[in-house]
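Exam revision sheet. Question 4 asks you to relate a sequence to its structure. Input first:
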Amino acid sequence: MDLLTGILATTFLAGGVLALAAMGEVLAERVGVVNLGAEGLMAMGAITGVATVAAVPSPALGFAAALVVGALIGMVFAFATVTIRANQVLCGLALTLIGTGLANTIGRSYSGTPSAAVFERVEVPLLSDIPILGPALFSQNVLLYLIYIVLPLGLHYLLFHTRHGLNMRAVGENPAAADAAGIPVGLIRFAYVTAGAALCGGAGAYLTLAFVPAWSDGMVAGRGWIAVSLVIFAGYRPVNAVLTALLFGLITSIGFVGQARNWPVAAPFLSMLPYLGTIALMIVPVLAWQKVRRLMAAPAALGEPFYRDVR
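Answer key, structure tokens:
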């Protein structure tokens, strides 16, 4: 029972990083912009969180600083892809390379040093006493409740139950028609690319202030790319993205337990389980039957810059 509780607790912790980054990607891609810079944004958020709590030992301030840094970098990316209409894929790859390199450079003085402050666990009265599930679900840091409950439900309501959400989806599906209807395509794309980048930066801070409370080079370890793939498999829906992130959290947790308990499986194989899972998820939409593929379909204008017809 203790083993099962530990696996579930680690599942929620590990999945939180991917869930937050994936929701950021959902925001950007729902309005038609591909952001492949999640890896760089997460790296910058991770080192920002560590550096901030080293100066002021407040994890909340560290997380907020990472959100701001992510938003500022996102504004640069949005200016390039939305305003100037540069190639979104190339800009995203450049953002990953620059963000990762810059974070590793800044982080040299923090490498191997534990974070000065981290998010502590908050036990929910009564619920945390439930056997097995209680300690795993209701004795976690406050960020997890935000990531798994508040954000996905809030974003789902915004996207699918508000007029503004309808405008966002219209911008991602047919920006020319949206523009003809008076919807500010450029402004909506700029705003939600920035907001999505902020969430990716926050995911990086979560990594160093809640999941692995220390900085080391390459600690993001491809999680940004996994988050991008989660969005595709989740059909560009925030709730589905969070549920899929939990699946990856479970895979990661099983790998940790296997190494800790010396299972007769090579440790490198256990470490690469999340990446094998990513490949499997990318294959599923290809093999899925037609109705499932339709549900997973990307916004029609995803990756396409918008040019207003002035004729």
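Marking note for examiners. The radius of gyration is 19 Å.
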